[in-house]
Design a protein that fits this description.
Number of helices: 0
Order of helices and strands: EEEEEEEEEEE
Distance between the termini: 40 Å
Oligomer: single chain
Radius of gyration: 13 Å
Length: about 120
């Protein structure tokens, strides 16, 4: 059974940085896509960044140039490096894994940007 556990959220001041981590347990076979999504209060969940098993990444326009997604296949980890954080980045951040026959989510980690 695949499980995802996020860590690294917290409170940070504007223009600060945070690094989110997602640990994946269970077997992962074949082509897959790891990603980060976020959901602000009263808003729908939105894509932040995804990276596939060929290491191709895509980002939401709102985070391009500020966030970097990466993965370590050997450790079954996916990361989100967030720089120059803005108050509008405040949200619960969720790790996601899509593979053939499955779509898995973590429980989320809260990120708050405030002075």
């Amino acid at each position: 059974q695949v499980q995802l556990v996020e860590s690294g959220g917290g409170l940070v001041q504007p223009v600060g940085s945070l690094r989110l981590s997602c640990a994946i347990s269970g077997d992962i076979f074949g082509f897959n896509v790891m990603g980060w999504y976020r959901q602000a209060p009263g808003e729908q969940r939105e894509l932040v960044a995804i990276i596939n098993s060929d290491n191709r990444a895509n980002y939401a326009d709102s985070v391009k140039g500020r966030f970097t997604i990466s993965r370590d296949n050997a450790k079954k980890m996916v990361y989100l490096e967030m720089n120059n954080l803005k108050p509008e980045d405040t949200a619960d951040y969720y790790c996601n894994l899509k593979l053939f026959g499955g779509d898995y989510w973590g429980q989320g980690t809260q990120v708050t940007i405030s002075s």
